[in-house]
Each structure stands twice: as structure tokens, then as C-alpha cells.
Amino acid sequence: EVGEGLCLAHAFDLGLLEHHTCDHNQPLQKWVYDPASDNIRLEQDMGQCLDFFLAHQDFGVWSCIDAANHEFEPDHAGKLCLVDDRSKCVQNATAEHFYIQLRLPGEASCFHFGGRFDGQTHMIIHRTCQPRREQWWL
């Protein structure tokens, strides 16, 4: 969550998220932004989405449905904010050992280092994002 220095961790379905020290190896802290639906999905269970619970004024997880309280869009600072309330945002955890994938806005493509043409290695745009070192960026 923005400004907290902690990561959102899935504790149980249909409930509030826990706030833990970030651990890049912890699958319950891994989320994937889906720009086609504006959802942030739990990587371990893509049917579960990050949701904002108005009654609790906190983030939780809920089944992915077409609802504004779990639709997020990128802002100018690189955060993902609720479409209906731009003050409710999350951002990638970044630290020395955290890696992110760089995606094209609105597409499933990722920047990928290692494309070879003209006898040289280049950064290319790969049609899919995959858990490969060539797509990890600091």
C-alpha cells in the first residue's frame, strides 16, 4: 500500500488483506495487473481480485466481477489507483531484491532484453509477459 512500506498479503478469500513485510518469494503477496479489465489479480488464483472495502476503508480480496471498487488505473506517478477514488492507490514494492516487469499500457506485452538482430542484443517488446529473467527490471 502506498506510503506504508509494507506489502498486501492475501490471508483468506473474501476478506481484508494483511499488511506484511515484503517478501518477493511469498506467493500470497504477488499480484498481476490486468489492463484489459483494470483488475489487480492474485497471481496464485487469478479469479481473486484486489478490492477496496468501503465499510472498512481498506483493501481486501474478492471474486473478480465487474465492479468499480476493484477497477484500478495507472496514474502519472506509476501507482495503480481506484477508478472511482484516485486517492486509494497501491504500487509495486521496490527494494534491492525486488524485480518488476515493464508492460505496455493496455497490452499484455512486456519489455524483454535479449532480442537479437543486426548482430546485436536489443531490448524488445515481447508479445507475452513470462516469469523470465529477461523480463525482470530493477
Automatic annotation (TrEMBL):
Superkingdom in the source lineage: Eukaryota
SUPFAM superfamilies: Ricin B-like lectins
Protein name: Ricin B lectin domain-containing protein
Organism of origin: Haptolina ericina
